[in-house]
Design goal:
alpha+beta; Nuclear Transport Factor 2, Chain: A; 28% strand; 127 residues; four-stranded antiparallel β-sheet
Length: 127
């Protein structure tokens, strides 16, 4: 009987812990970088900026997005990202975006809320 009372008393706490644990998963930087890069490649402003923090979102214009999309399309079809190094302590992640005819460096920084605070794409040498 006492065990049942303890279980009833602990059940709300266990439910709360389970709920919080489900919410606490940090963002996957590779998935965020790929989703954003695909948005850029497609010239889709909403898909590109959906995970940006407010400060970064305010820096993106449709014209700048179009120009970067054009640079990507000049390299052919986008095939995805490869890890190119990271500094998880500083929430900085680098990836190589691969295309038919070259690569680009994708640099990503996440803020404390796991929103993209910095996103930069640049050609790599030889591309």
């Amino acid at each position: 009987m006492r065990g049942l009372r303890l279980w009833r008393a602990a059940a709300p706490l266990l439910a709360f812990v389970a709920l919080c644990t489900g919410c606490a998963h940090p963002a996957d930087p590779a998935a965020l970088a790929d989703q954003t890069t695909r948005g850029v490649y497609d010239g889709d402003y909403t898909a590109t900026t959906q995970n940006f923090d407010d400060a970064l979102k305010g820096q993106v214009t449709r014209a700048s997005l179009g120009a970067l999309s054009d640079r990507m399309h000049a390299l052919g079809v986008y095939h995805g990202l490869r890890d190119a190094g990271s500094d998880a302590q500083r929430s900085r992640y680098d990836f190589t975006a691969t295309f038919d005819r070259g690569t680009m460096l994708v640099e990503l920084r996440l803020d404390a809320d796991h929103r993209i605070a910095a996103y930069r794409v640049s050609p790599q040498s030889g591309s």
